[in-house]
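Lab notebook, bench 4. We co-purified these components, and the gel suggests they stay together. Before we commit to crystallization screens, I want a quick structural picture of the whole thing.
Request: model the full complex, all chains together.
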Amino acid sequence: MDKRNLIIEAMYKLLKEDKGAFCSVSEIAKEAGIGKGSIYYYFKSKDEIFDALVEHVYYEKIRHCKEVISCSHINALEKLQLLFSVYGQYIIDPSIDSYLHLQQNAAIHQKSLAQIHNLLSPIVAEIFNNGVNENLFICESPQETAELFLSSFCFLFDPGIFSWSDNQILKKLKALADLFESGLSAPKGSLQFLYQSFQKQI
Amino acid sequence: MDKRNLIIEAMYKLLKEDKGAFCSVSEIAKEAGIGKGSIYYYFKSKDEIFDALVEHVYYEKIRHCKEVISCSHINALEKLQLLFSVYGQYIIDPSIDSYLHLQQNAAIHQKSLAQIHNLLSPIVAEIFNNGVNENLFICESPQETAELFLSSFCFLFDPGIFSWSDNQILKKLKALADLFESGLSAPKGSLQFLYQSFQKQI
DNA sequence: TAATCATTCGACCACTGGTCGAACGGCTGT
DNA sequence: ACAGCCGTTCGACCAGTGGTCGAATGATTA
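Here is the predicted assembly.
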């Protein structure tokens, strides 16, 4: 049995059970059924456990995103919509977020945001590129534009940084759709999906 | 003597002296020359001190921004350029940033970014609104669009989160200018100032 | 003078992330 | 069979944390 994974899974289980605030090293050890000292035989620090956890959790999700995006014979707009729905269901993990949004975990929160940004931006850039080839978009710098697009999700829409009401989020999503429809010269209304799914759910 | 300010100033002093790691409540009390218990007479929690500190630090700076923007008889594009230069020289204070970007100060860093965002977004929104009235821009939701604009500066361009090369920053600034020129239907090249000043300095 | 009440304090609390030396148990070489 | 080794396991222990509490102070009021 791989003890490293045992520890990671124990922490993940605690986070999934919304025990974010009580996810101390002692608790992780208890959950894993091992002594606290042993934790530090496999990891240098608690941060290192969480780093491994984030990598473990996001690796599969990003791989899945890439797969979803690359396999189908759909256009750039449909891909973007698909990625967006996968992002909402998959990437945003409430169990991890409860831990990340604790004040004391701001550093690792920031790191996670940067990681999500770095992992997703090439994928979004690729979609923008597809769109240009399909004459759906006009975009000189797909990579940079993708980064600007993702900055909103990583910062403005992060519930650990801001606490917007549903209505406020809706207005921001609409503005985002408008901005990028114009900015990418995309067909009018083609980015409506950014707020329509959210509009339904509230 | 206002004890609340005394406490805030004590904490601010510790942070400025790069004592971020030793900025415990006990240390703050010692620095302020009062008992630890008294801290909790004026603040509910350490977080609340953080909040007050961030507000205290940025209040004056934002007020100055507002003044600069409101007094002159210049159009929206010129105001935006003016704000942008003030932002670069004034809001981004390297001596403050150096401690904000320490790992241990990630929490206050995040709060500062949110605070800057919240304080600046109405100002930028007002400028966008001016632009609409002056037939320079087309913008349905100035407030939300301003927030999207500022998200980039607070997140993507924060040197504490990402370490881009000068060349990468230049490309991102160009993409930002392109995006918002199209997104706001602003005159072609009217947002060049976003990257031109940076281009000169490298 | 007595009573009230905001204010001040530091010993104290439960808890944290992290350390350490003792101990266990399965190898090896002799 | 024995000794020595070493990877592994453990929980008592450590310094330090944010936060609590009841006692003490001193000014104001009745």
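Residues 181 and 189 of chain B are 7 Å apart (CA to CA). Worth comparing against the SEC data before the next meeting. The longest helix of chain B spans residues 106-133.
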